[in-house]
Write a structure and sequence with these properties.
This protein is α/β, with parallel strands linked by helices. It has five helices and nine strands; from the N terminus they run βαβββββαβαβαβα. The protein has a single domain (3-191), classed as Rossmann fold (3-Layer(aba) Sandwich), CATH 3.40.50.300. Helices cover 32% and strands 29% of the residues.
Length: 203
C-alpha cells in the first residue's frame, strides 16, 4: 500500500473538549463494524481518587487489543517517582510509556495492522524516546493509517511536524462540532481503509 492510499488524521482541541471521547467512538466502531480490519493503539484515561471522584490523581494508558493498563502520570511523590519528569502536579512514568510502546511494537511486527490509534501525542508521552521513535516511524514515514490526538498547546518539534505535514488532515474538536465529527469526517476514513498490509518500518 503506498503512502497516497493512507489517511493520517490528527485530532486536536482544548483539554476536556472531547478528543478522547471521539477516539472511544472510533474504538467501538472498529470493534463492532470492522472485523476485517486489523488495528491497535491506546487511549488515555483519567485516574480518580477512590475517596473523592471529583479529584483527578493521574492518567493511565489503556491499550488495544490486549487491554493492558499502564500508569502514564500520577501525583505520587514517593522516593521512586520524585525524580520523574513533571507536567504540572503530575509525575510522568516514562518507563510505563516505554512498556506501552514495546507492546504495540510487538503487535505491529506480528499482525501488521492497517490502523494505529494514538491518544495522545502530548507533553507527557513525549518524554519517552521510544514513543517519539514509534510515532516518527509510523506517523511520518509509513503507509499505515494513523488516527491520533495531539495536544493543541505543545511546541515539541514532532507535534509541529505532524500538524504541518501535508499527508495529515488536522481536525479541531470544538463543543459545536464534537457530536458530528465522527460521521462527517472519521467514518469515511475507516470505511475507505485499504485492506492490504502496510510495509513494515524498522527503527
Amino acid at each position: 500500500m503506498s503512502m497516497s492510499n493512507a489517511k493520517q488524521l490528527a485530532i486536536t482541541g482544548l483539554p476536556g473538549v472531547g478528543k478522547t471521547t471521539l477516539m472511544l467512538k472510533i474504538v467501538n466502531y472498529l470493534k463492532e463494524s470492522c472485523s476485517n480490519i486489523k488495528w491497535c493503539g491506546f487511549v488515555t484515561e483519567e485516574i480518580r481518587d477512590p475517596n473523592n471522584s471529583k479529584e483527578r490523581i493521574g492518567f493511565q494508558i489503556l491499550t488495544y487489543p490486549r487491554n493492558s493498563r499502564y500508569t502514564l502520570a500520577s501525583c505520587d511523590n514517593s522516593a521512586m517517582t520524585r525524580n520523574y519528569p513533571k507536567v504540572g502536579k503530575y509525575n510522568v512514568h516514562v518507563d510505563s510509556v516505554d512498556q506501552c510502546v514495546q507492546e504495540l511494537m510487538q503487535y505491529v511486527k506480528r499482525e501488521r495492522p492497517q490502523i494505529i490509534l494514538v491518544d495522545e501525542i502530548g507533553k507527557m508521552e513525549l518524554f519517552s524516546r521510544d514513543f517519539i521513535d514509534f510515532i516518527s516511524a509510523y506517523m511520518v514515514n509509513s503507509s499505515v493509517t494513523i488516527i491520533c490526538t495531539v495536544a493543541q498547546k505543545c511546541n515539541h518539534k514532532l507535534v509541529e511536524l505532524i500538524k504541518t505535514d501535508r499527508k495529515t488532515e488536522l481536525i479541531t474538536v470544538t463543543k459545536d462540532n464534537r457530536d458530528s465529527l465522527f460521521q462527517d469526517k472519521i467514518e469515511k476514513v475507516l470505511l475507505n481503509c485499504p485492506q492490504t498490509e502496510f510495509e513494515f518500518m524498522t527503527w
